[in-house]
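Sorry to interrupt, but I need a hand with the structure work. Go ahead and set the record down below:
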Amino acid sequence: MKVGMIGVGEMGVLMAGHMAAKGMEVFANDVVQSRIDDAVARGAKAAPHIADLAPICDLFIIMVRTDDQVKMIADQILLSAKPGSIIAVSGTHHPDMMKALGALAGEKKVGVIDCPVVYGMDGARDGKLLSLCGGSEADVEKAKTALICYSRDVLRVGPLGAGQIAKACNNLLHWVHAVSNFEAILLAKRYGIDGQRMREVLLKAPAYNNTLERWDETKFTWQEKDMDVVLDLAQNGGVIMPLSGQVDQLIKLFHAKDVHELLYGPEVSYLGRKVVPLKPSEGGLG
């Protein structure tokens, strides 16, 4: 299978490398030449121009940041893509964009699936991402040959757009956990329990969650985009989600340094208030 990997940044280059290592013929495209060079070093072939890439590939995996970037790339692919080829969108995007893309590609007899990935950089490095897919059973099955090269599993959730909704649900719980983990450990820290020690205990307790385990790697980069998608879906679907609304507001205030201070520092700030451990005379633990 010939695979065009469009977007070989931090995660895309690792995904391309895993596919190349497992026998896929991978063509790497990016707006940054050094990223293409990195992908070539991992076994891919350079493809500086999508116009040259489109007529020869069976599968195009798009891993970029925004809906507008996906649309621009897809327009270029569809100018000369061969019928029966598939566009697979592996980033986090709005399901409405996926449905619009599916309609446009259908006119060219090109398939479209959404296959956003979870498990982040660890999963990308280890080739153990999880691909959450939306699209026809036939298209997902065809693309799976390549997707499984960098995935622990490839799960079809439903029709086109379902993968993005599944990713939105996953992201929602991740950011809910980010807030709840912080407040739980903040309470322990206030009473004099070491933040990292409390985290270690919670990882062995029923309160365990994967966000807590990967706490040091949470960069708080995409929370606003993720929550915008969640709340837009809720609004359009007429679903009342008050907790999600609060998380949307709170998570905007979080930074990685706050988590580091919570776990390892002598004090931490939350919602503009400094929190230090109570002394025994103030009700803290002796």
Notes: The two ends are 65 Å apart (CA to CA). The first strand starts at residue 2 and ends at 6. The mean pLDDT is 96. The domain at 165-282 is CATH 1.10.1040.10 (N-(1-d-carboxylethyl)-l-norvaline Dehydrogenase; domain 2).
